[in-house]
Amino acid sequence: MTPCTRWLPDRPLPPYTYVPGRTPHPVSDPRGHSFGNRNEDAEPPPAVAGQAVLNGLLWGIDLFNHGYFWEAHEAWEGLWHAAGRRGATADLFKALIQLAVAGVKHYEGRDEGMRRHAARAKELLQPFAGSLVFGLRVTDLICMAESIAAAGWPPEPPVLRFDGTAVSVGLAESESQRQQ
Question: Which of 99, 114, 147, 178 is most buried as measured by Cβ atoms within 10 A of its Cβ?
Protein backbone atom coordinates (compact mmCIF):
# COMPACT_ATOMS: atom_id res chain seq x y z
CA MET A 1 0.00 0.00 0.00
CA THR A 2 1.29 3.43 -0.97
CA PRO A 3 1.27 5.89 1.93
CA CYS A 4 -1.44 8.51 1.64
CA THR A 5 -0.67 12.19 1.46
CA ARG A 6 -1.25 13.91 4.79
CA TRP A 7 -2.97 17.21 4.08
CA LEU A 8 -2.60 18.51 7.64
CA PRO A 9 0.66 16.81 8.67
CA ASP A 10 1.19 19.04 11.72
CA ARG A 11 -2.02 17.72 13.27
CA PRO A 12 -1.35 14.33 14.88
CA LEU A 13 -3.68 11.45 14.17
CA PRO A 14 -5.47 10.01 17.20
CA PRO A 15 -3.76 7.12 19.01
CA TYR A 16 -6.59 4.76 18.01
CA THR A 17 -9.75 4.74 15.93
CA TYR A 18 -13.02 4.47 17.76
CA VAL A 19 -14.96 1.27 17.15
CA PRO A 20 -18.20 1.11 19.16
CA GLY A 21 -18.06 -1.60 21.81
CA ARG A 22 -14.33 -2.21 21.32
CA THR A 23 -12.48 0.97 22.20
CA PRO A 24 -13.20 3.80 24.64
CA HIS A 25 -15.52 6.47 23.27
CA PRO A 26 -13.19 9.33 22.32
CA VAL A 27 -15.23 12.10 23.96
CA SER A 28 -17.48 10.65 26.67
CA ASP A 29 -15.12 8.05 28.18
CA PRO A 30 -12.37 9.42 30.47
CA ARG A 31 -9.97 7.00 28.69
CA GLY A 32 -11.00 8.42 25.30
CA HIS A 33 -8.40 9.98 23.04
CA SER A 34 -10.28 13.31 22.98
CA PHE A 35 -11.81 13.31 26.45
CA GLY A 36 -11.77 16.80 27.91
CA ASN A 37 -10.43 18.35 24.72
CA ARG A 38 -12.37 21.05 23.02
CA ASN A 39 -13.39 19.49 19.71
CA GLU A 40 -12.97 22.25 17.16
CA ASP A 41 -14.24 19.98 14.39
CA ALA A 42 -17.57 19.49 16.14
CA GLU A 43 -18.21 23.22 16.09
CA PRO A 44 -19.38 24.24 12.65
CA PRO A 45 -17.69 27.18 10.98
CA PRO A 46 -19.88 30.28 10.59
CA ALA A 47 -20.38 29.63 6.87
CA VAL A 48 -19.53 26.87 4.45
CA ALA A 49 -16.68 28.72 2.81
CA GLY A 50 -13.05 29.56 3.32
CA GLN A 51 -10.21 28.11 5.32
CA ALA A 52 -12.38 26.61 8.08
CA VAL A 53 -14.17 24.41 5.53
CA LEU A 54 -10.94 23.46 3.82
CA ASN A 55 -9.35 22.49 7.14
CA GLY A 56 -12.42 20.45 8.17
CA LEU A 57 -12.53 18.72 4.80
CA LEU A 58 -8.80 17.95 4.77
CA TRP A 59 -8.79 16.75 8.37
CA GLY A 60 -11.64 14.38 7.51
CA ILE A 61 -9.74 13.15 4.45
CA ASP A 62 -6.58 12.55 6.53
CA LEU A 63 -8.60 10.62 9.09
CA PHE A 64 -10.54 8.58 6.50
CA ASN A 65 -7.44 7.71 4.50
CA HIS A 66 -5.70 6.42 7.62
CA GLY A 67 -8.62 4.30 8.82
CA TYR A 68 -10.11 6.69 11.40
CA PHE A 69 -13.64 6.44 10.08
CA TRP A 70 -15.59 7.48 13.17
CA GLU A 71 -13.28 10.46 13.61
CA ALA A 72 -13.66 11.43 9.92
CA HIS A 73 -17.42 11.30 10.36
CA GLU A 74 -17.10 13.72 13.29
CA ALA A 75 -14.85 16.08 11.31
CA TRP A 76 -17.34 16.29 8.43
CA GLU A 77 -20.43 16.49 10.62
CA GLY A 78 -19.61 20.07 11.64
CA LEU A 79 -19.45 21.03 7.96
CA TRP A 80 -22.78 19.31 7.31
CA HIS A 81 -24.37 21.30 10.15
CA ALA A 82 -22.82 24.55 8.88
CA ALA A 83 -24.29 23.83 5.45
CA GLY A 84 -27.74 23.74 7.01
CA ARG A 85 -28.14 19.93 6.81
CA ARG A 86 -30.16 20.37 3.60
CA GLY A 87 -29.31 21.26 0.05
CA ALA A 88 -26.53 20.46 -2.35
CA THR A 89 -23.54 21.36 -0.17
CA ALA A 90 -25.01 19.55 2.84
CA ASP A 91 -25.66 16.48 0.69
CA LEU A 92 -22.02 16.34 -0.36
CA PHE A 93 -20.86 16.41 3.27
CA LYS A 94 -23.56 13.91 4.22
CA ALA A 95 -22.29 11.56 1.51
CA LEU A 96 -18.77 11.75 2.95
CA ILE A 97 -20.22 11.05 6.39
CA GLN A 98 -22.05 8.01 4.99
CA LEU A 99 -18.81 6.67 3.49
CA ALA A 100 -17.10 7.09 6.86
CA VAL A 101 -19.96 5.32 8.65
CA ALA A 102 -19.61 2.48 6.15
CA GLY A 103 -16.00 2.20 7.39
CA VAL A 104 -17.16 2.08 11.01
CA LYS A 105 -19.66 -0.66 10.13
CA HIS A 106 -16.85 -2.57 8.38
CA TYR A 107 -14.76 -2.41 11.57
CA GLU A 108 -17.76 -3.62 13.56
CA GLY A 109 -18.24 -6.56 11.18
CA ARG A 110 -21.71 -5.32 10.22
CA ASP A 111 -21.69 -5.95 6.48
CA GLU A 112 -25.34 -5.05 5.88
CA GLY A 113 -24.94 -1.69 7.60
CA MET A 114 -21.70 -1.05 5.69
CA ARG A 115 -23.39 -1.75 2.35
CA ARG A 116 -26.47 0.30 3.25
CA HIS A 117 -24.41 3.38 4.19
CA ALA A 118 -22.28 3.08 1.06
CA ALA A 119 -25.43 2.84 -1.07
CA ARG A 120 -26.82 5.96 0.61
CA ALA A 121 -23.55 7.79 -0.11
CA LYS A 122 -23.83 6.85 -3.77
CA GLU A 123 -27.42 8.06 -3.88
CA LEU A 124 -26.45 11.43 -2.37
CA LEU A 125 -23.53 11.82 -4.78
CA GLN A 126 -25.37 10.93 -8.02
CA PRO A 127 -26.57 14.49 -8.75
CA PHE A 128 -22.94 15.64 -8.87
CA ALA A 129 -21.54 12.86 -11.09
CA GLY A 130 -18.77 14.16 -13.31
CA SER A 131 -18.12 17.18 -11.09
CA LEU A 132 -15.05 18.28 -9.21
CA VAL A 133 -16.31 19.62 -5.87
CA PHE A 134 -14.08 20.99 -3.11
CA GLY A 135 -11.16 19.24 -4.78
CA LEU A 136 -12.91 15.85 -4.83
CA ARG A 137 -13.76 14.03 -8.05
CA VAL A 138 -17.33 13.00 -7.37
CA THR A 139 -17.30 10.19 -9.94
CA ASP A 140 -14.44 8.56 -7.97
CA LEU A 141 -16.52 8.82 -4.79
CA ILE A 142 -19.53 7.29 -6.54
CA CYS A 143 -17.40 4.39 -7.81
CA MET A 144 -16.02 3.82 -4.29
CA ALA A 145 -19.50 3.85 -2.74
CA GLU A 146 -20.94 1.64 -5.46
CA SER A 147 -18.15 -0.89 -5.10
CA ILE A 148 -18.52 -1.09 -1.32
CA ALA A 149 -22.31 -1.39 -1.60
CA ALA A 150 -22.04 -4.20 -4.16
CA ALA A 151 -18.91 -6.13 -3.21
CA GLY A 152 -18.17 -5.15 0.38
CA TRP A 153 -15.08 -3.58 1.85
CA PRO A 154 -12.11 -3.82 -0.51
CA PRO A 155 -8.96 -5.71 0.56
CA GLU A 156 -6.96 -2.54 -0.17
CA PRO A 157 -8.52 0.21 2.01
CA PRO A 158 -10.34 2.91 0.06
CA VAL A 159 -8.62 6.28 -0.30
CA LEU A 160 -10.17 9.67 -0.94
CA ARG A 161 -8.19 11.53 -3.58
CA PHE A 162 -8.00 15.28 -3.12
CA ASP A 163 -6.96 17.62 -5.92
CA GLY A 164 -5.41 20.58 -4.13
CA THR A 165 -5.16 22.53 -7.37
CA ALA A 166 -8.95 22.49 -7.68
CA VAL A 167 -9.83 23.42 -4.13
CA SER A 168 -11.53 26.64 -5.17
CA VAL A 169 -14.07 24.66 -7.17
CA GLY A 170 -17.08 24.58 -4.89
CA LEU A 171 -20.59 23.34 -5.35
CA ALA A 172 -21.90 26.42 -7.12
CA GLU A 173 -19.26 26.11 -9.82
CA SER A 174 -19.81 22.38 -10.26
CA GLU A 175 -23.57 22.85 -10.51
CA SER A 176 -23.15 25.46 -13.25
CA GLN A 177 -20.71 23.15 -15.08
CA ARG A 178 -23.33 20.36 -15.04
CA GLN A 179 -25.94 22.67 -16.51
CA GLN A 180 -23.75 23.59 -19.49
Answer: 99
Q: Report the distance separating Cα 15 and Cα 12, nearest Å.
A: 9
pTM: 0.84
- Domain assignment present for residue 136? The answer is yes
In a domain, 3, yes or no: no
Distance CA 121, CA 149 (A): 9
Is 35 inside any structural domain? no
CATH code of the domain containing 174: 1.10.3450.10
pLDDT digits (tens, 9 = 90+) for 91-143: 999 999 999 999 999 999 999 999 999 999 999 999 999 998 888 999 999 99
pLDDT tens figures, 32-78: 788 877 555 444 444 445 777 888 899 999 999 999 999 999 999 98
> What secondary structure does DSSP assign to 109-149, as a single string?
T-HHHHHHHHHHHHHHHGGGTT-EETTEEHHHHHHHHHHHH
Is 29 within the bounds of a domain? no
Residue range(s) defining the domain that contains residue 106: 49-179
The number of distinct structural domains making up the chain is 1
Count the residues in the chain.
180
